[in-house]
Amino acid sequence: MLGPVSGHFTLMTENSVAPNSDIANLDIANQKNAQRRSARRMAKYSKRKGELAELIFVVKAASMGFSVSKPFGDSDPYDLIVESNGRLMRVQVKSVFTTNRWGYSVTVARNRQRRHGEQYTAQEIDFLAAYVVVHDAWYILPVAEVVGIDHIRLYPDGTRRRDGGRYEKYREAWDLLRLGVSTLAEIEVKDAR
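Above: the chain's sequence. Below: its structure in token form.
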């Protein structure tokens, strides 16, 4: 026999363990460790998705006749260097794998530890290449379009909103890289010559 049982008991849950008990401390430590492991795994997975997008960019750009180089390490604000007609352009590659209500939200600011939310500048990159994986669609955006912005929304399926298609003009705009220009207006000026 176990001995007398109190007529009063409470239902114990994870959050109701007495805070001073060894069990509670062990459980909290295990939860924190699991969260850290999960965050590390997610960061590793996210980094791999970014690397995959960079490789897809290299294959696509090289198949179109561009020379593409990868800087050593990952300390620079740009991922790749694209050469066209003797001009070198710094390209930051971003990707999105999932949708959120018809559109795709792409983070166009830095997403590193200690530098989260810091926007890119024209002194650091020339273009941002955003890849919508599900649609195999590239958006080649001049840096002027993303300066001061943390996120952009892309709508490869179209949108019903009047302000929704702001970046559609940059979908598959590889000519911006080919001509070494940073705006569509510059293409029109070059074509006029």
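Residues 93 and 127 are 9 Å apart (CA to CA).
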